[in-house]
Design goal:
The chain has 210 residues and is an alpha+beta fold. It has 7 helices and 6 strands. This is Transglutaminase.
Length: 210
């Protein structure tokens, strides 16, 4: 699948924002610590992936009722669903000037019911011409995701016959439907009931990375 930038300018994918708040001291502290132990863009990106995957439990696995959506809150409180964890990973990458995007899948149960949007992070490392999707959701029984610039290592590969979708758009910010669900949720059980089942295209006509 060809990944498509929603914004033609690469600067959009290193910018700070309310959600991807990589200038926040909490984000900077984690980034500084990881980069000191793992110098070099590739080593740092892989270490940051492992940190978000392993050190921040997925709240649906852990039973944590809190809902986080800012990267700094995810890292400080050490909890979040997939959307929140992808924002945290994007912030850690951007804190070191590595372009990072947010992207999504539509997944379902094995019978095609209960569709839900799943979040991923895409990274563009120096010297690479192609974005690479990463899945920092967190491992669980039967799930073992790794950082990869080659074959993708994702929690799920889509099954088009069940209506599952890989959305090709690379977003500089969380999709509005995703962000709205996170911000409106009183707690995680409320969020579980209001997760988006699909995403509409947004913004200008997407452009392919030259």
């Amino acid at each position: 699948m060809e990944l498509i930038q929603q914004d033609p300018g690469i600067n959009a994918y290193v910018a700070a924002s309310e959600a991807v708040d990589h200038e926040h001291p909490v984000v900077r502290e984690v980034a500084d610590r990881l980069s000191a132990a793992h110098p070099g863009a590739h080593a740092y990106a892989e270490a940051a992936f492992a940190y978000v995957r392993d050190a921040i439990p997925h709240s649906m696995d852990s039973g944590d009722l809190r809902v986080t959506w800012r990267a700094s809150d995810v890292l400080e409180q050490r909890t979040g669903i997939c959307y929140a964890k992808t924002v945290a990973y994007a912030a850690l990458l951007r804190a070191r000037g590595i372009p990072a995007a947010l992207c999504y899948q539509r997944l379902t149960d094995d019978d095609g019911s209960h569709p839900v949007v799943h979040g991923l992070t895409a990274v563009l490392l120096p010297g690479e011409r192609a974005w690479a999707r990463q899945d920092p959701r967190g491992n669980a029984p039967g799930v073992d995701t790794r950082f990869s610039l080659g074959p993708e290592s994702l929690v799920r590969t889509v099954r088009p016959e069940l209506g599952e979708v890989d959305y090709p758009q690379l977003h500089a910010e969380p999709h509005p439907a995703v962000l709205a669900a996170l911000r409106a949720a009183r707690d995680r059980p409320h969020l579980d009931r209001t997760l988006p089942a699909g995403l509409e295209p947004i913004g200008p006509e997407p452009v392919t990375l030259p």
